[in-house]
Amino acid sequence: MSPIFTRRARHRLPEEVERALGAEVRERVMGWTLASLPQEFLVIGAHTLSVVVTHEGAALVRLRRPWHLVDAGSFDPESSRLGLSWADDSRPELWQLDLAAAGALEVVDTFRDRVQASVVLADSVGLGRERLARVVIRRDLATGELLCQELLPAGVDRAEPGVAARLDATAAALKEQVGLP
Question: What is the value of pTM for the model shown?
Answer without folding.
Answer: 0.87
